[in-house]
Known about the structure:
This protein is an alpha+beta fold. 39% of the residues lie in helices and 22% in strands.
Amino acid sequence: MSRPVSRVLxxxxxxxxxxxRTVAELAGRLGVGERTVRRYVDHxxxxxVPVESVRGRYGGYRLAPGHRMxxxxxxxxxxxxxxxxxxxxxxxGITAAAGTAGETAAAKVRRVLPERLRHRLDAVLDSxxxxxxxxxxxxxEAAVLLPVADAVRHHxxxxxxxxxxxxxxxxxxxxxxGLVAHAGRWYVxxxxxxxxxxxxxxxxxxxxxxxxxxxxxxxxxxxxxxxxLTALATAPxxxxxxxxxxxxxxxxxxxxxGSVAVVADADGGGEGVGEGWxxxxxxxxxxxxxxxxxASLDRPFVVERPDELRGLVADLAGxxxxxxxxxxxxx
Length: 331
């Protein structure tokens, strides 16, 4: 590529980074005179790239807002970051691209890359393997995600059509506090004005979203991520489990996922339980996995409820004792 053409493309890349660039700044970055910069700008305009001239003390050049994206300019590192980001997003379920949008976006990026770079990136993607299976994903529609995000950012009320987990659907008016991506799903947490209570909504269950006039002030307290994790941990399940564990709430929270357990400092009381203990509340459909979880904490604990869990803990303790002695398994 000839040096003038290379510099014109470098100029385009500088303008793509946003903001107004002065002629002196551009001349310094390109290593040319200011007159040459103006000539390069004329070349871009001839190619239908919407470059605007800004007058005044801090004037210069910028790309006109609202126009179609100019030719994509990516360095080797940037191209690799974009493609790996698309792959990782699909694998972890974090992508908000529904259907095949992720694949088509990656294909478009690859098409505009030089052949040399495209082959090198294909070598990375073809040789890459993962240690975990792809996460299940429930990507929200862009027609839902974008107005929800706009309402969150500008503290605007939101009207949604929502289908609950049991199939019931209806219109809701929400004060949205924040967007949260967790375990392959997207959530919006906020105040449900219809119910008069804070709620968490899955975006893939929202059929339509519309920003309403007016504003609201988000309340103080937990952030959106903590609200979502607490909502998941306190969702109605078959069993309500309460356990006292020795340690501070901060120490125990580091050992238990926030979407599984609600941890708080204990208020004392209970035989052999007082200061230096915390209370753990867990909702679960089954109890068989909880003895192993509690044992993995490697801390003294007391099961308050249900009684059935105490029996399961005792059974696990017996099996561990048999294993330590080398005794064949019972039964």
